[in-house]
Amino acid sequence: MIIERWTFLSPRAKIWILILTPFFIALAGYFLFLYPRVHEIETLKREEGQLATKLAEAQRITQQLQKFRQDLLDQEREFQAMLTILPEGREIPKLLHTISTKGAEEGIEFLIFKPEKEVQKDFYVEIPVSVKVKGNYRDLGAFLERIQNMDRLVTIRQLELGGFEEASRQMILQCLAMTYQFSEKKADAPPPKAPPQK
Q1: Which DSSP letter does residue 191 get?
Q2: pLDDT tens, 149-188?
Q3: CA distance linking residue 193 with residue 195, whole number of Å
Q4: Cα–Cα distance for residue pair 14/2, rounded to 1 Å
Q5: Which helix (H) or strand (E) holds 112?
Q6: Thinking of the domain 89-182, which architecture would CATH place it in?
Q7: 91 DSSP assignment
Q8: Count of alpha carbons within 13 Å of 194, Cβ hemisphere only?
Q9: What pTM, to 2 d.p., does this model score?
Q10: What 3-state DSSP class applies to 157?
């Protein structure tokens, strides 16, 4: 039946049919087979872009995490170094004994060596020690230098020199030696202010 119709067609119609038939077959093939694949490829490319963005974000977070871990290790090392400077409670008597020994080694005579009331701060306790010693100028200076060069943190406050004795060439040094102790207890917050009365 198709062959009978083909024979009656004009040559021009035959040429158009021969040209358009492969075009329509190709067009049908494109829409039936290729278009879904092209659409799928575009969808996969979009997903790939989204995954690449997520991967970049994850890598950035990983780098930040590594930096955070390094910062945490650095902080831990600093904290441990601070603990060597700030003795624990059981080390305070030994530290005070060391201070008095260093004075005795320099030929200093201790007149007063009295621990005062401790003062709680944020993460440490201040331990003041009233010190009154007698010695010559050089020995007093050497004593203060030895305290300054100790492994533990000891500061000298309220330094006063006086009472120079001409005959013995000695003077009196009075000061407040302040040492510090690590404490996990926080300083008490000041009580809240009362509202003004009307």
Answers
A1: P
A2: 877 778 888 988 887 777 878 889 898 888 877 776 655 5
A3: 6
A4: 13
A5: strand 109-115
A6: 2-Layer Sandwich (3.30)
A7: G
A8: 3
A9: 0.51
A10: strand
